[in-house]
Structures are given as structure tokens and as C-alpha cells.
Amino acid sequence: MRGMADFDTCWSIRVYYEDTDAGGVVFYANYLKFFERARTEWLRSLGIEQLELARNTGMIFIVRATALDYLSPARLDDLVVIKSRIERIGGASVDFLQEAWRDAPDGSSELLARGSIKIGCVAADTLRPGKIPAHVRLAMQSAARTAQALADAVAPSAAA
């Protein structure tokens, strides 16, 4: 079983002034932007460009549901690491768990926000649900299996 610390990918983003609210902390909705960027960069790392996907298959990904918990604020100039993991791949959808973390000067890490993001695959012209293209599904499944294998290799034995 995968633990909460085992993720498929990590992506870093620096907090800029434009990301903060009047109180000097990251505006809550910007975590959704950070999570979106991390998923997009993860797809890109798998060789999947979203514009090319739309042109070649007529399919696009859309967010269909989100649920976020905000635990601690990020502030101007923080380096935030977005960790993403596929929780489920369906015929026309992918469910992600994503977390935003900040490294503290003492070497510890602090969880800032956690989100459950449900993505749907739809036809670009009609926005009706459609199957995730086979090559995209295979790339996602392969990446998730590789992350799982790495997590299993470094995880302490459950029998110990």
C-alpha cells in the first residue's frame, strides 16, 4: 500500500508577488493554478503536450471537481513543491491527489495544502466525455507503476 509521502511526481514553483493577497500570503485559489501547472508539466515530462493532444485526437482534459484543504500559508518568495499522485484512472477520467509543501530552513517540510482533483477527458468540440487516448493512458499507467515500484523499493517492510 502506498503511503501519503509516495508521489508520482514533484514540481517546484516560487511564490511571486502576483500570487499573494493583501495579507502577503498565497491567495487560496492560486493553489489550484499551482496544481494545474504541476499536472501539465508532469504530462509534458511523459511526452504529452496538451495542444498537440487536442490537435491530434480532438480530446482535452478539464477539471470536473476539486476539494482542497488549506493547512498553512505560503508567503512571498517561498519555494513550494507540488507533489502529485494518480489515485485512479478510469475510462474517461483521472483522479489526482496533490499536495503543496514548503521546505523549512531547519530541513523539515511543512504541508501547506492538499487537494483531490478530478480530471475528465472530453471532446474539444462538444465537451462530451470521451475515452482517454490509449497512448496517454499507457504513459500515465507506466509512470504510476514506476513511482509505485520506487516507493515499494525504499519503503520499510510491512512485516518488520
TrEMBL record:
<dbReference type="InterPro" id="IPR006684">
    <property type="entry name" value="YbgC/YbaW"/>
</dbReference>
<dbReference type="GO" id="GO:0047617">
    <property type="term" value="F:fatty acyl-CoA hydrolase activity"/>
</dbReference>
<protein>
    <submittedName>
        <fullName>Acyl-CoA thioester hydrolase YbgC</fullName>
        <ecNumber>3.1.2.-</ecNumber>
    </submittedName>
</protein>
<comment type="similarity">
    <text>Belongs to the 4-hydroxybenzoyl-CoA thioesterase family.</text>
</comment>
<dbReference type="InterPro" id="IPR029069">
    <property type="entry name" value="HotDog_dom_sf"/>
</dbReference>
<dbReference type="InterPro" id="IPR050563">
    <property type="entry name" value="4-hydroxybenzoyl-CoA_TE"/>
</dbReference>
<dbReference type="Pfam" id="PF03061">
    <property type="entry name" value="4HBT"/>
</dbReference>
<dbReference type="InterPro" id="IPR006683">
    <property type="entry name" value="Thioestr_dom"/>
</dbReference>
<feature type="domain" description="Thioesterase">
    <location>
        <begin position="23"/>
        <end position="103"/>
    </location>
</feature>
<dbReference type="InterPro" id="IPR014166">
    <property type="entry name" value="Tol-Pal_acyl-CoA_thioesterase"/>
</dbReference>
<keyword id="KW-0378">Hydrolase</keyword>
